[in-house]
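To whoever is covering the structure queue this week,

Two jobs came back overnight. Logging them here so there's a record in the thread.

Job A:
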Amino acid sequence: MSELHIPVLLNEVLEMFSPFSGQKNLVYFDGTYGRGGHFKAVVEKFSPVKAYATDQDTRAYDQALQTWSDEIKIGRVEVHHKNFLEFVTENKAAEKIDMALLDLGVSSPQLDQADRGFSFNKDGPLDMRMNQKQELTAAKIINEFEAEDLIEIFKSYGEVQNPARVVRAVVNDRVAKPFTTTLQLAQLIERVDGWKKKGFHPATQYFMALRLVVNRELQVVEEVLPLLIGQMQDKGRIAVITFHSLEDRLVKNIFKNSNDGFLVNKKVIVPSENECKMNVRARSAKLRVFQKGAEPEKPDKFALRRQQRDMNSEVE
């Protein structure tokens, strides 16, 4: 079991938070602690007076408690076993937040642990729950949902153009033997759909769709961002890392349409070629950053030229 987790776009996140360098009494909120790579880097670089971390994954929560035990004792760090929507809704942070980060991907340890059921490359229970206490699993969806619902899930959340053949095979096979493992489902998809793109497993989009539905990921993001914006300090920044087009589009539109602030980076930030070579799981990552408050006026590039022209006119 690998516990290695390389935080994606780490340098870019730190750069987006750079306006806070040297400021005192900062409050930081990390809504997706994972294995703590981003959290550790931000805390060390900006020394917030208070840092909140949440994660609904039991193993991530336990690791955070152990890693930050000293800071937790003195009240500098708080760790909560819940998802970021629950935390923000309950408004545990009495203080306004200066820096917030949501890394919406599945951590490497989650992917690498076969018993979590996220990976189509490793045999494990067809689970995919980030919060192991909830009832809905990928197996329940595959074995109990109607064919029409499965088609809609794979189309809407996996962006699979034509999932009907796979769904028909699933519905047919589950009568004789329910789907219980990841490889059982992945091999069916591979058999029915076949490989269309080298290096891109045919089950990729199907598994992503199941994960999104099991964990209500899009709904949670859609609900939390407006609430989180409301809890930010003026000039506070929210950094969000996404890993697929549906989430990125959702984040972009919420930030772009907000009347309470603006997108700091008009063009989405993506990992460097070097980072993608070092960490293949970074390839699909995208970073968008929102700042609370009025957007600073851009300097008028032509003001000096107009001033000079007006002066010349007066002389004439």
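Job B:
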Amino acid sequence: MKVLLDTNIILDVLLNREPFIGKSAQLVGLVEQKKIEGYLCATTITTLDYLLCKALGQKQASLAVHKLLSMFNIADVNAVVLGLAIHSDFKDFEDAVQYFSGEYCVVDALVTRNIKDYKASQYPVYTPDMLLKAFEAYTLNQKNIKTDTDS
């Protein structure tokens, strides 16, 4: 499963933001364990560096960004993505860029705490809790299929 994580999900983890860190950390853990294929929009990386520098300092920000780059695939932001975003029905250009970067690299879903910002979405958008439940159901289904074929 290829999933684009919204900037806010990563910030929840890196800045230990309560009450959101629990579910967001579980999702990042699934990426780290390679149970889901995680994607970040290229603009997420620059935004994270800027915000983390302000909150944690340059050294910590650089370490965090380096770790993210080793764990996640990066969804491109190019002329096609920007063109789709600027001409879309999204109210927020940044959300549109993030969404279309995921569409461009063909993710299966986007996960965010702000589902209302993605009403114009043509592919599934989940909250962290919704995606964790969907992943659990998918995993259980895969185990049942394996058990059925083994019999």
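Note for Job B: The longest helix spans residues 128-150.

Please reply-all if you pick these up so we don't duplicate work.
Q.
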